[in-house]
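User: Fold both of these, please.

Assistant: Here is the first one.
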Amino acid sequence: MTTLTVKDLLPEDGTRGTLAGRVWLPQVNGPAVVAVRGDGVFDVTAKFPTISALCEEDNPAKALGSTKGERIGDLEAIVANTAPDGRDPKKPWLLAPVDLQTLKAAGVTFAISMLERVIEERAKGNPASAEAIRKEVTRLIGDDLSKLKPGSDQAMHLKQVLIDQNAWSQYLEVGIGPDAEVFTKAPTLSSVGTGMDAGLHPKSTWNNPEPELVLFVSSRGKIVGGALGNDVNLRDFEGRSALLLSKAKDNNASCAIGPLLRLFDDTFTLDDARKLDISLSVTGTDGFVLDGHSSISKISRDPTDLVTQTIGKVHQYPDGFVLFLGTMFAPVKDRDAPGQGFTHKRDDIVTISAPQLGKLVNRMRTSDECEPWTFGIGALMKNLAQRKLI
């Protein structure tokens, strides 16, 4: 991992928006909630002990903007000290901008990624079979379902046609049926941030990044801001069986969120998020380059619908939650043998970016090589209590 700079982090409009994050403070051996401003990084933990608490404010952006905080340093120096290689443990570094919130993810929310999930299922996790199956699935279903509203009469008619042709799939059920796929991505506090290593299960041989918008939602179901996310995916594990979803999705360092939380204000709104274009770049030490994108405007289900299906009378989140919205990115570019598509190699650098949210940069390693996750909810509560912040 090369040393990151502020240019590798901030949105195109710099600190014009309301930016929050978390920084590890060695002097207290714990995290700080920070406001990132033009004149530095400010510790606001005395007012907001957690990002979750900040998101519970009636107007989080206004609340953060009116809190001065204590300046802890320049953003440049903190960013430069974030990557695990060469980090000075006596100086602050960036963390993922999420803490007590439950980490949720929506799947199969774009037509093109829905087709890839069907292909994975039929290939039984074998990438060598994917190309032939892709052609057959496209012949049966088509490759443009973007105008098909999930749960509509038209969608239900298509469902019956596919059932009659023995072409129905559980992924089509959540892709065009009335109920969205929403699952728990990873344990609370287990996310890695920008500059960190992201993890792949060491037994996986077919996997890919998933560039996504991550919404931050309060316990009342109010969407208050967004960040970028990499919902690291093991295509071979999930392709073998959907019951392996947890093993395909939840491994050490397999949930990356960052670089910062941009709260909704006059400079960035939910409508702006709905139009967000997210870019992806993967560069390997073998010279391989993969580029992709995901446009939230092409999502099959509106973000508010996905949030409504996540929280309500049948499920509550007292500390709020963050929600990965899914991706339209489908990695089909061959990396090695023809027809076998893309899979990660050790030390791939994955950059997920959006003009309004900055860049989330991670180096890919196996999960057992990444920094172990040791600071959980109990450790956070104990640390905040010792600092007399709760």
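And the second sequence with its predicted structure:
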Amino acid sequence: MPGKGKWVDANMKDIFIVEDDALIAMLLEDMLADLGYRVCASAPDLERALAAARDTEFDAAILDVSLAGQSSLPVAKLLDERGKPYVYATGYGAAPAGSSPSTLPVLQKPFQLSELEQAMKRLTEA
């Protein structure tokens, strides 16, 4: 498989997914496994995402920008407070207004395995 484990850093392997579309979440989990990561938590809505972001141990996260019409920005702010790196995944073209820092990787949906691989690499370099 392309890139199998190529970018996995020993200090960043447990990933938290915030995605409201179950099929996309499953595809993302498979893609991450192909790259050598493991999904330790997943949340389909803002309420569960905030709880998991607060109470779960993970190394990095992938956030859908819009969760059934609600912004994932509160989750991003919580991750910033915890010092957890994350990537936005969106079909809207950009991270939500108010995101910090502005240099975060943004995956444009639909994305390919190689694009996910590059975004995860940027997180390990941050």
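Confidence is low (pLDDT under 50) at residues 1-8.
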